[in-house]
Amino acid sequence: MGGEIWVESEGVPGKGSAFHFTIMAEPAEDAPKAPAHEDQHILEGKRVLIVDDNATNRRIFKLQVEKWGMLTQDTEFPRHALTLIEKGEKFDLITLDMFMPELDGAMLAKEIRRHNPTVPLLLFSSIAQSEMGDNKGLFDAFLAKPLKPSLLFDVLAGIFDRDRRAPLTAPKMSVFDPEMAARHPLRILVAEDNAVNQKLALRMLEQMGYRADLASNGIEAIEALERQPYDVVFMDVQMPEMDGLDATRKIRVMSNLVQPRIIAMTANAMQGDRELCLAAGMDDYVSKPIRVNELVGALMRVESK
Amino acid sequence: MTSIDRLTFNELKQISGAEFINELIDTFLDDAPRLFEELKSAQESGNADSFRRAAHSLKSNAATFGAGQLAELAKELETLGRENRLGETGDRLNVLNEALTSACDELRGLKS
């Protein structure tokens, strides 16, 4: 059969010994096919930040996880990754290379942890886990290069399944960053007629430290803008009296106003809806029910004065 | 069969907080009968715009709380309103009222 067998022992009672062997084996005739990934939905929509100075590695990783429906953002610069996180960008997973110029994977992981103690960190590197020493504890999972899709899938599913198995009643870390308003201050007006949506929008903003003002229709929104400037208006499209599209068109021709950024909020998932909003003069769009990620993303795109 | 999708509801609970969710449920319960009355009277008076708006609000609120069937029904009515086809609603208002009642009952039970 060929192969080797050997034993390592210090010969000290109680210290234990290590037995090793190698064998030569033929590949199985019908090797199991790549898993069909019926669990793929676990990964769908998850946001991953890929940090690797090697463009090829980034690309392979990106293409693979996008096949599973993950949303990716990637950078070759560890410092840029940090900037994104400091700015409050939220990710469900960050994958890091170990050997990068300026800031290596372990240093970057430490920096990330200072801002976000909970985001799962995956070390994707050719370095062996045994060589990591104390730094091993910085990462939630490890994956060796070169990338093996089925292994990657298992590692990712393991990371996110752990979340899913967590009891829903357990006190979870807030999904909001309460410091966001301090770092990225904005004057916000919410124009919305529906009481449930009003409360929910104000509540979400409040948890990020924002105190938004409220208008119940387009007319009230315009009156509010005449009273004081706002950096951003969340504009419901369907409102009585004056809807969001009409209000936006009117606001855009009011030359005496400091023009706010206007973000459409709509529960219509119809095609062409977004175009309609942009054509009316809105700048951005979030769908209802509002998702935390979408809301944070929309706020981050507003310039803070 | 439950009217409220627990995954959606628990997500909502997570983003609004365990206490605030009660306030949000109360708001839904306060608004629901009013919106249904609006829908009914809009149909009787043939006011397609008001009909569409009430259906739209019901749809939006139902989706927020994970009341999938109710959201679907409200969406159908919204479309009929937008296309000015109030004569074609058939039995849909009654079916919607039943779905709304069972969603409200279940939400009451989900308050803590």
Note down, in words, how this protein is organized.
- The complex is a heterodimer of chains A (305) and B (112).
- Chain A is α/β, with parallel strands linked by helices and 305 residues long.
- Chain A folds into 2 domains: 40-165, Rossmann fold; 180-300, Rossmann fold.
- Helices cover 33% and strands 19% of the residues of chain A.
- Chain A is built from 10 helices and 12 strands.
- Chain A has helices at residues 55-67, 78-86, 105-115, 149-165, 180-183, 195-207, 218-227, 244-252, 273-279, 292-300, and strands spanning 3-9, 17-23, 47-51, 71-75, 93-96, 121-125, 141-144, 188-191, 213-215, 232-236, 261-266, 284-287.
- In chain A, the strands form 3 sheets. Chain A has a 5-stranded parallel beta sheet with strand order 4-3-5-6-7, with helices on both faces. A 5-stranded parallel beta sheet of chain A has the order 9-8-10-11-12, with helices on both faces.
- In chain A, helix 1 links the parallel strand 3 and strand 4 (71-75).
- Chain B is mainly alpha-helical and 112 residues long.
- Chain B is elongated.
- Chain B starts with 5 loop residues before the first helix and ends with a helix.
- The chains are: A alpha/beta (305), B mainly alpha (112).
- Chain A binds chain B through residues 168, 172, 175-176, 193-197, 199-200, 203-204, 207, 238, 240, 267, 288-289, 292, and chain B through 10, 12, 14-17, 20, 23-24, 27-28, 30-31, 53, 56-57, 59-61, 63-64.
